[in-house]
Design the sequence.
């Protein structure tokens, strides 16, 4: 319930929080155009829309994306679901009863049965037996220690399920694929999604905390290189349809579970030799994620990285063949690309084909799409053996690049401003507006009577293509005055001619 008007000193202005933006008209029209381009192109390749939840079980992301990745380590927004009606222990709590209650709650899933909670329960039992012993021996000091340890452990329990705002959607697609038994569907399952993602990053141009992705995934029994190539062809077709020129496609293969670990070991050994010359980030990554060192943009590290062993020389035969076949398939489709041996991607689950698209006009945040193959992911999440490949386009950056290229100017939105004058013209204006809208025209109908000059002035400010003048004379004669606002020319038309005229004259401005 509203608390009524706030006292003046209580009034505060609310603002969207840092890293999160409103997308306002007219920019939102460009967003819609870009998203529609994706729908049209993807559906022509027989991909179907999947709508996914915005938050998921935290473990879904830590398992799939990987614990050692930047995303999971520091970028996720995680919170506990509302806990059930279990009190936290206090000085009146009986540890025996409480421990038993927790055990029961875990068993019956009243509180989440996570590995962490199980470990805590084991600890509670351990401290409880210490407590019993101390009581038996009347050792008050030991009793107090055991009780304190038990209480501390009990307070570590997580009552609500840990949930995370999705930082990406591939994990959710795989979860849905498994949950709904999509592996029984015929052929490969081809899905696309459009929606917001959340990462706690330092906000800057092209990098936000709520940002948007348009993604596509192919899941199923086959890992034929033609799938990879067709997916990339579709991506290129999308950028084309969206009107984004000056994109650059980079492709690489990062091997599979057979050959990549050996390469990573070799890379780690070579990195150890040059450790002193690397910056702190890269030094840390030697242990946690050495492939990510190849991603470094630090100028002083570049000559060192250039001399490191390259994965292409260490692929197993099957991966080599897959990569060679992918190149043939890309050539067959006339797709221009560049091999970038340093393209490794930040997520743990990628195998073999990886690719990235960059665009001009974005400064250092110039990647507009990342993608790759993830053949083991569905199995890792508890599903049947499944091959997979997908990409995610950063919509915010696509929009920025389009605006930078001067393609952000949306076409006028109002087709017809219906300038009615005089009480007798109002009812006919309302019904004419409805008929025009039913024909697909965007019509603005002033809700209150306006003076002629003011009315046309507003039509002009709204960027209307035409003003349709409907006064008492027009109503009587059935002849409407149509004024083209770009040059002021006007003519009188009856309604059927008017519709035909608008149709043929607005086609080019509305395309
Ligand atoms: P980057 O190296 O720029 O951080 P990434 O490797 O983290 O990108 P992916 O996880 O591959 O990005 O996501 C695919 C695309 O999503 C990126 O190429 C980019 O266009 C977009 N993207 C990722 N993070 C953000 C963000 N915080 N704000 C806006 N767009 C983003
Ligand atoms: Mg990132």
Sequence:
């Amino acid at each position: 319930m509203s608390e009524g008007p706030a006292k003046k000193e209580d009034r505060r202005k609310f603002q969207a929080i840092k890293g999160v933006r409103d997308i306002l008209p007219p920019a939102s029209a460009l967003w819609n155009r870009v998203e529609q381009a994706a729908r049209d192109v993807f559906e022509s390749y027989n991909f179907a829309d999947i709508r996914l939840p915005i938050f998921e079980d935290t473990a879904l992301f830590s398992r799939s994306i990987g614990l050692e990745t930047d995303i999971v380590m520091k970028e996720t927004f995680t919170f506990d679901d509302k806990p059930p009606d279990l009190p936290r222990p206090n000085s009146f709590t009986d540890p025996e009863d409480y421990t038993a209650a927790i055990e029961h709650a875990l068993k019956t899933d009243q509180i989440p049965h996570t590995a962490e909670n199980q470990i805590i329960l084991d600890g509670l039992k351990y401290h409880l037996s210490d407590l019993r012993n101390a009581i038996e021996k009347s050792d008050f000091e030991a009793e107090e220690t055991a009780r304190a340890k038990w209480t501390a452990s009990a307070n570590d329990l997580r009552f609500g399920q840990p949930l995370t705002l999705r930082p990406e959607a591939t994990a959710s697609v795989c979860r849905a694929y498994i949950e709904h038994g999509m592996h029984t569907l015929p052929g490969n399952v081809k899905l696309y999604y459009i929606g917001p993602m959340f990462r706690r990053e330092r906000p800057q141009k092209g990098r936000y905390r709520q940002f948007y992705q348009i993604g596509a995934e192919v899941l199923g029994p086959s890992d034929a290189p033609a799938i990879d190539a067709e997916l990339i062809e579709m991506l290129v077709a999308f950028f084309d349809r969206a009107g984004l020129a000056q994109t650059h496609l980079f492709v690489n293969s990062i091997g599979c579970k057979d050959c990549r670990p050996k390469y990573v070991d070799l890379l780690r050994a070579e990195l150890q030799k040059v450790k002193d010359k690397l910056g702190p980030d890269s030094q840390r990554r030697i242990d946690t994620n050495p492939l990510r060192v190849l991603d470094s943009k630090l100028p002083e590290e570049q000559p060192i990285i250039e001399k490191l062993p390259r994965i292409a020389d260490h692929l197993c035969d099957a991966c080599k063949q897959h990569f060679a076949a992918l190149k043939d398939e890309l050539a067959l489709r006339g797709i221009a690309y560049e091999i970038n041996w340093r393209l490794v991607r930040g997520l743990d689950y990628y195998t073999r084909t990886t690719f990235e698209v960059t665009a001009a006009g974005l400064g250092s945040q110039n990647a507009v799409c990342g993608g790759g193959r993830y053949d083991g992911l569905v199995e890792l999440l508890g599903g049947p053996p499944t091959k997979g490949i997908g990409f995610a386009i950063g919509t915010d950056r696509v929009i920025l690049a389009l605006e930078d290229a001067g393609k952000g100017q949306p076409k006028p939105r109002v087709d017809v401003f219906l300038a009615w004058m005089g009480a007798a013209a109002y009812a006919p204006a309302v019904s004419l507006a409805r008929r025009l809208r039913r024909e697909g025209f965007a019509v603005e109908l002033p809700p209150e009577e306006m003076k002629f000059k003011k009315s046309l002035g507003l039509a002009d400010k709204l960027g209307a293509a035409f003003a349709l003048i409907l006064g008492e004379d027009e109503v009587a004669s059935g002849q409407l005055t149509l004024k083209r606002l770009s040059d002021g020319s006007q003519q009188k038309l009856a309604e059927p001619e008017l519709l035909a005229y608008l149709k043929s004259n607005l086609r080019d401005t509305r395309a």
Remarks:
- Residues 168, 199, 201, 206-208, 211, 213, 346, 365, 367-370, 392, 394, 396-397 surround adenosine-5'-triphosphate (ligand 1) (CB under 6 Å).
